[in-house]
Amino acid sequence: MRRFIYQFFFLLYTYKIMYKPSQQMPMDNYEVVSPAENQSDFLAGQTIRFNIPRNIAFWDPHTSYLRLQVAVEGMNYKMCFVDDVTSLIDMIRVSQQGTTILETTNYNTLCKFMKDYSQSLSIKQKNAQHDGSCDYIVQSVTGAANWNPPVNGSKTVTSGCLHGQGLNADASTSLEASAKDCKFNLPLDGIGLFDMPQLCPSMILGDILVEIRLVQQDVDALKVLPSTKAYQKVSTPFAQNDLTCIIEPHEFVGYTCLADSPFAIGMQFNVIAANGGAIEAGAVHPITALAQDNATGNITITFTTAIDATEDGNELLVLMTGNNTTAPVLAATRFVVKRADMMLRVVRPPQEYIEAMTRKVLTEGLEIDINAYTAYQATVQSAIKAQTVEIPSFVSRARSVFTIPRVQNAPVWTNNGATDANYNGQYKNLKNYRWQIGTRFVPNQPIELDQFLGNLHFSAQHIVEIEKALVAAKIPVRSLLKAKQNFVCGRALAKHGGSINLDAGMRLYLEYQGVADPDESLDVVSFVNHINRIVIGQNGLTVLG
């Protein structure tokens, strides 16, 4: 009996540590850099592959991450990500010897949605230091009424510029040549093995292949730095034959420092009076040097050629990226992932831990549940008031579903951001919606969105449904401020950490306000959050769910 009791508690202990190692357990750990097995310059549409070998016995998913070194080539404007570094990623697949453990498409859309709802402003500000987020700071600014564009009130200040200013640049340096590569860190949130609460046992799973497919077009991931405008106001008047001017960035919308400003060595400007004075005929002034005063924040710009006229003290710099101020983004502009590394936190547990796990695999098999998202795409047509979105998911352990109606039009680069790629869900005057699971409508009555009309951003029932869906998917709810800006229809499919079997699929019924709504066709992507179970035994690996 004593031996039985001992064995029982030993097995209970080993079961617990397999899934959540004890804080008292010695856990030596160190970081290993695992480079992409096809290491090269990766362009739009290409796939980066990582092999996590079984000799990395155990690693911690929550402190491991992806590191990407990114450059922009062939540019005539400073560029940034559409959202952050996740804008580059279209699909992630994890497999083992040909068996797919999970596959998530539209990863950039999923990440945008999760970030907007699960991150507070302070968390976004923190993460922006390493993920290349392009807008996260809100400040109050006031601009003069006589320069374009006039600004007043609270505005978003842009960060995340992909143009790191290079050293030893001179007057002949082009915008591209003056740039240097930028490095970004990316935790692979929500992706199975990288979202496990326990250590990942590669010694049991075997060699793991991680494939990351980049977006198909450069325009899907990049946009012109929003602080770039045709006009930049000069803070002090030009004197005759001046080679320099001063910009006070804190006074104006769009940038606060040299790093997130639109200025770069090699860019070309002209001068115009804000009150309608003429542009210097044929004059082009390339930037030869840039400096910022740490005390005042003022940016001093030095030009190659002198300004040949004195204006009235309200001068504007006119951006001359081409022959005029409306020059398009060069067709040659592209992102290049110069290097890709998986930064793995390797953990060495005690021998007892390893022996217990091995014994379990050989006797009854080891089961590991992972969090997965599977995407399903459909289309909502323009000017059809009532529509149905089919979600052909038949997973056996579904927890939540999130449907995001996105802009369908192909993105086009502009210097005003009018048609940039957009991963936000579009409200488009939706009146109500409800789900059908099998033959059952949930909830009984449609979820009304009348309060979203006009400038209101709050609809109580919709907010409750979104919050329940997030909780069921184990996504922390820290912000609902973008419930309209990034509109998502959500439904919790199970409660109390459970799941349901979607053996009959799902439908989403949408009713818009008027016969002319929505005003454009929408690309609809639905993410079904579900649990995949990995079963590891003597016969190898099986994925259920």
Number of strands: 30
What is the end-to-end distance?
39 Å
Number of domains as seen in the coordinates: 2
Q: Specify the number of helices.
A: 6
CATH topology of the largest domain: Adenovirus Type 2 Hexon, domain 4
The multimeric state of the shown protein is single chain
Helix vs. strand class:
mainly beta
Explain this structure to me?
- 13% of the residues lie in helices and 39% in strands.
- With 545 residues, the chain is mostly beta strands.
- The chain folds into two domains: 2-224 and 333-544, Adenovirus Type 2 Hexon, domain 4, CATH 2.70.9; 231-319, Thrombin, subunit H.
- A hairpin with a 6-residue loop joins strand 18 and strand 19 (299-303).
- Helix 1 packs across helix 5.
- The protein is globular, with a radius of gyration of 27 Å.
- The model is unreliable at 3-19 and 137-155 (pLDDT under 50).
Question: What is the gist of this entry?
Answer:
With 545 residues, the chain is mainly β.
Primary descriptors:
Adenovirus Type 2 Hexon, domain 4, six-stranded antiparallel sheet, 30 strands, 6 helices, 545 residues, mainly beta, disordered N terminus, Thrombin, subunit H, five-stranded antiparallel sheet, 2 domains
Reconstruct the topology from this structure.
Layout: H1 2-19, E1 28-35, E2 47-52, E3 58-73, E4 79-81, E5 89-96, E6 99-105, H2 107-118, H3 121-131, E7 135-142, E8 152-158, E9 164-165, E10 179-180, E11 182-186, E12 200-201, H4 202-205, E13 208-214, E14 222-224, E15 231-233, E16 244-247, E17 268-273, E18 285-292, E19 299-303, E20 315-319, E21 334-348, H5 351-363, E22 366-380, E23 386-391, E24 398-407, E25 430-437, E26 440-448, H6 460-472, E27 489-492, E28 506-512, E29 522-537, E30 540-544
Antiparallel strand pairs: 1-21, 2-13, 3-11, 3-12, 3-21, 4-14, 5-6, 5-13, 7-8, 9-10, 15-20, 16-19, 17-18, 17-20, 18-19, 22-29, 23-28, 24-27, 24-29, 25-26, 25-28, 29-30
Helix pairs in contact: 1-5
